[in-house]
Amino acid sequence: MVLYFIMFGTLGTVSAIYIIRKIRELQWGWVKSTSSLKDKLFIITGANTGLGYETSKHLVKRGAKVILACRDSTNAEQAISKIRQYTGNGEMSFIKLDLSSFESIKTFANTIKSDYPNFDCLINNAGLAKKEHSLTADGFEMHFGVNYLGHFLLYNLLEDNVRRNKSRVVVVTSSLHERGKIDFNEFTNTNTNPESNSRHNKYYANSKLANFYFARELYKRGVDCHTLCPGLCYTSLFRDYKPKWYHFVAFSPVIWLMLRTAEQGAQSIIHCATDNINTEELNPYTGYYIKNLKQTKSKHVFEDVISTRLYEESLRLCSK
Predict the structure, then answer these.
(1) Contact status, residue 121 vs residue 40, Cβ threshold 8 Å
(2) pLDDT reported for residue 90
């Protein structure tokens, strides 16, 4: 009898978790549009894996041309091959881009301006979350340098093209931006900070807040800019943390209830790149971003003085 109740209780718990999971998946939303994107050109950073890969795959399936901007040619070519197997076709090109290097970003931008000057959308997707403190090739804290400043420089090098083509700019942020802080003294922090190894990586949150400020400033300056949080996704983003098997056991309920596949997380990126419409009330400048395919108000209190200063300081850092 006791064994019966234990088995019944376990089955009930598993069933409840399964049902809750399915309800959450419905809440996350799914892009339903299948309208043709033929002759439209999308540039996607970090396109060979995770969210970038899934975004590329779905855009190509709808007829879009995609430039995969990523560091490794082998991984990019493998991604292109897999997408072609999935779609049966696909017009894609790989151009090397290392967002931790200003030199690489400038080379990439020059190639775009020369070979692909008329693009429809720039998707700033690539990102990282590192356990240990490290610096970019140009001496910036790695999260700030790659997640934010690299994309900032890329946009500014392509700004004339964006404005001439009236291109969309998509900025991937995170709900963790609400924990972030813009500290102008830490952009070139060369000292190993114990906080970078804490449970909540402040540098990652700070970089995502900088991304939101970036999107906010672009929108204010007349750019068709959209920003989003893809949700907690199972991708290679946190590969540097190398969790143990018992971490997965301990957090399995959270994983089941919260963790999205890369394909599920990519839906908000696809939505922002194709269908989302900002309004006078709901836009990055007023503190709204896309979450679960819906306009969502950020809890962060944005300050115009920080927004302007961050943009101007970023220009100065990139000019160095």
Answers:
(1) yes
(2) 85
For residue 251, is it within any domain?
Answer: yes
The per-residue pLDDT for 259 is 82
Find the domain containing 243 and state its range: 34-319
Q: Residue 183's domain is classified under what CATH number?
A: 3.40.50.720
Residue 303 is which amino acid? E
Q: Considering the entire predicted model, what is its pTM?
A: 0.87
Residue 130 vs residue 23, higher pLDDT: 130
Identify the pLDDT of residue 4. Answer: 52
Distance CA 142, CA 38 (A): 37
C-alpha–C-alpha distance, residues 175 and 298, integer Å = 8
CA–CA dist 221, 285 (Å, integer): 10
Residue 95: what pLDDT?
98
Pairing outcome for strands 294-297 and 288-291: antiparallel
Give the Cα separation of 314 and 227 in Å (integer).
19
Does 23 reside within a domain?
no
Q: What angle do CA 234, 49, 31 make, to 5 degrees?
A: 70
Set 148, 155, 204, 289: catalytic member: 204
Residue with tokens 């990282």: 128
The answer, yes or no, to whether residue 194 has pLDDT greater than 50, is no
Mean pLDDT, rounded, for 121-136: 92
For the chain, how many residues are written? 320
What token pair was written down for 289? Answer: 């971003």
Catalytic (active site) residue 155: no
d(CA 282, CA 33): 22
